[in-house]
Amino acid sequence: MNRRRKSITALSAAVLLLGGCSETISGTASPVPGQGPVLTKAAPCSLLAPEHADALALKLPGVETKGDKARKLPPMCLLSERDDSPRGVSLSITQSADIPLNDFYAGALPGEKFGIGGFTWTRYASPLGPTACSLSTELGPSSFVELGSETQAGAPEATACDLALAAAPAIASRLPGGEPNPKIVAPPGQKKPEPSGPLLQVDPCTLLKPDEAAKLAIAPGTPVDPANLANPEDKGCEWKDSDGDKGQRPLNVTLFLATAVADVAGLQGTPEETDLGGRKWTVRSDTATKYCTAALPISATSTVKVSSGHWDDETKACDLLRAALPTVSAALPAGS
């Protein structure tokens, strides 16, 4: 099961666990003053406008499941993160028109409250634990909306509600009495940033000129086919070695125009920091693959990656890269 499918399944399971309990807590759900009329029909996938889904890097259409009133399960909409989302997670939207909030949560304890979009949203304890978030607003005695999200991979538990909180203004704007025209901002890592920064105007093949390449016994650089790059906005250049399919591997430079260094693939091995004129490169050598990489964050969302290796001898994997790196680094734009 891939990470994206597991994410959706977890959110779906959380709703089933919440609604599937038969025990209810004491008390009666009360409408919150000023929150508009009670809904008569639940349509959770209609609560996220296309422009808001785009802002949150979520795929449309969502997958809607029918409710089961006997099991206290309102209709639910599952929206997965887009394929280009760096560390994105899914969002679930549950909407009830005929099941009280207390019945749905069946004893789950309310926690922190947030005033968002004209409504009071309350976080409840999730049966999936602290890495999952269940955020709800009560619209009437038998109507509510619940948003579910989870932590990004490797992120702290405190971020479990980040996507739900970011989506709440968008959902609120589609509810009766909600504040219109919200500005939606995705949590860090949820949406791929737009290409920006000093690398936009850089041709990677100019970072190591033909005469400089000749001194390293490699051919002049040639552009890498965009189809062979990780992202459509990336730019790459390759300097072929002179000993064929053995010994030394080619040298490659890739400019990631919208990828944080933490999200660049293929950076394997024990890191070693190298300072070149104030630029702090991280060099890694992977003995298993006889492959060597160097990465430099240019900004929070752009990275330079240099890579090479050796087909036969792991002790030589970084030789060409280390010889070329000072020249490549010095050729980068000033201030980057």
UniProtKB/TrEMBL annotation:
PROSITE patterns: PROKAR_LIPOPROTEIN
Sequence segments annotated as region (Disordered): 176-197
Extent of the signal sequence: 1-26
Nucleus among keywords: no
Keywords assigned: Signal
Name the UniProt record assigns to this protein: DUF3558 domain-containing protein
Species of origin: Amycolatopsis keratiniphila subsp. keratiniphila
